[in-house]
C-alpha cells in the first residue's frame, strides 16, 4: 500500500551507505549506539593475480617471435648471379627485370638482396631456377650451381 506520505523511490538514486570508521572513532560510535560499519571497502576482493605474479607472467617468453630473415649470404648470391646475367647490349640484369622474370614485386628482390626479407620458399625456388644457383640448404652450398656438371 502506497500513500501520499511515503517517500518516493527515485530510479538511479543510490542510498547512502554507513560511513566507515576506524580506531577511536569506531569505538566511540559503537558506545553511543550509532550504526557504523567497520568493514573496509574492497579489502577482501582479489581482482586478479598479485603484482609479482603479473610481472612474472610478463617476463615469460611466450610471445611469438618475429620470423627469421633471409641470410645476407643468400642476398649476395642473388646479386652476383643477377649481375652475371647479361642482356644483348652487354648490361647486367636489373632487379626489376629479375622480379618480372620470376613474377614478383621489385621490392621483394630488393629486400632479399639486402637480407631484410622473410624466407618465401616459392620465390626462392623461382629464383633458383632463373639464376641457376642454390639459394636454400646448407650455408656452404648457397650460391653453388644448381646443376653442377656430373663427375665421370
TrEMBL record:
The keyword Transcription regulation applies. It comes from the Eukaryota. The keyword Transit peptide does not apply. Keywords: DNA-binding, Transcription, Transcription regulation. GO terms for cellular component: nucleus. Residues 91-138 form the HTH cro/C1-type domain. Residues 49-71 have a biased composition (Basic and acidic residues). Residues 25-40 have a biased composition (Polar residues). GO terms for molecular function: DNA binding. Coiled coil: none annotated. Residues 1-74 are annotated as: Disordered. Transcriptional coactivator that stimulates GCN4-dependent transcriptional activity by bridging the DNA-binding region of GCN4 and TBP (SPT15), thereby recruiting TBP to GCN4-bound promoters. Involved in induction of the ribosome quality control (RQC) pathway; a pathway that degrades nascent peptide chains during problematic translation. Required to prevent stalled ribosomes from frameshifting. Belongs to the MBF1 family. This is Multiprotein-bridging factor 1.
Amino acid at each position: 500500500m502506497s500513500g501520499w506520505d511515503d517517500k518516493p523511490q527515485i530510479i538511479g538514486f543510490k542510498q547512502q551507505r554507513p560511513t566507515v570508521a576506524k580506531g577511536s572513532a569506531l569505538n566511540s560510535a559503537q558506545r553511543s549506539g550509532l550504526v557504523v560499519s567497520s568493514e573496509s571497502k574492497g579489502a577482501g576482493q582479489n581482482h586478479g593475480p598479485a603484482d609479482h605474479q603479473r610481472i612474472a607472467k610478463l617476463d615469460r617468453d611466450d610471445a611469438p617471435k618475429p620470423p627469421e630473415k633471409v641470410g645476407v649470404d643468400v642476398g649476395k648470391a642473388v646479386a652476383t648471379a643477377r649481375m652475371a646475367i647479361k642482356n644483348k647490349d652487354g648490361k647486367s640484369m636489373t632487379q626489376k627485370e629479375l622480379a618480372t622474370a620470376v613474377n614478383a614485386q621489385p621490392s621483394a628482390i630488393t629486400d632479399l638482396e639486402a637480407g631484410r626479407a622473410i624466407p618465401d620458399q616459392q620465390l626462392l625456388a623461382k629464383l633458383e631456377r632463373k639464376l641457376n644457383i642454390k639459394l636454400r640448404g646448407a650455408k656452404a652450398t648457397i650460391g653453388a650451381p644448381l646443376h653442377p656438371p656430373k663427375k665421370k
